[in-house]
Fold this protein.
Amino acid sequence: MIDAFIDTLEFFPRGLVYVALGIIVLVVAKVAQDLITRYSIGEQITKKDNVALGLSITGYYLGVIIVFVGTLFQPLTVVRDDQWKYTTDFGWNVLEVFLYSLAGIVLLNLSRYVVDRLVLYRFDTEKEIVENQNVGTAAVEFGIYVAVGLVIAAATAGTGGGVEGVSEVSTIDSVARSLAFFGLGMLVLVMFSVFYEFTTSFSIHEEIEKKNVAVGVALGGNLVAIGIVAFKAVFGEFVGWAESLAAFLTFAVIGFVLLYVVRTIVDYALLPGTRIAHELAVDRNLAVAFIESAVVVSAALILYFAV
């Protein structure tokens, strides 16, 4: 008991270094977003009280931290208890995490821009969030940021980028595998948004453009859920292209089917006497949107930990 307490005290200062580094990464992410936006974020948040932009930025910061946590599982980074004591160059480990995080911030911003154009492709999301203060659009972008962050974290920490077995492959191979599975994860996000649109009885784009917050929240929650599924599909030790691709496709298909089934269960079992589509599209019922989002995310988490 005493030895365990002493060991904890020994590791604690280094853990605080990573906490401080995470805060620095958030500041860098904030500066990066300021540089690539055509409007003043500070003015929108503090003077115009733009809730939509605030929600979008919240998702961005969560996505950044998800990527940051993923970088902690890089080859030289000491995260697991059995590695803390044997680190020969802790400073280099911290620098490595910081550099990976910077790359993740760049990738997160680029990916969000691309996915935005593919998920909500019928209108200008920036205009909807900044000028029209459309919270429904912001809710979708929140989901996109978190989902993309999960995909980046999984591609960085797993499939050749993780702690185990990385020394056996070259850096080029590791990066190539991470990029390949990152691309597959992004493809899953886009395909799921199309699948979600196809399996609903109303036009998601029309409803969100009409500032239907409930529809935006429901789609955003489903994107987070499929992001967790994509994380599960991508994350892990690379054991060969055939095996890894087969596992990826299996989890992706299971995820699509599972989330659809869960939405059906919510419709008929958890909310009997009403239809989710009517509640979301006609009544704009935020309570239903929150319930659907919570249930699909819960199902995705169960799939992640149980399989």
About this structure: Residues 2-306 form one domain. Residues 75-88, 158-169 have pLDDT under 50 and may be disordered. The chain is about 80% helix and 0% strand.
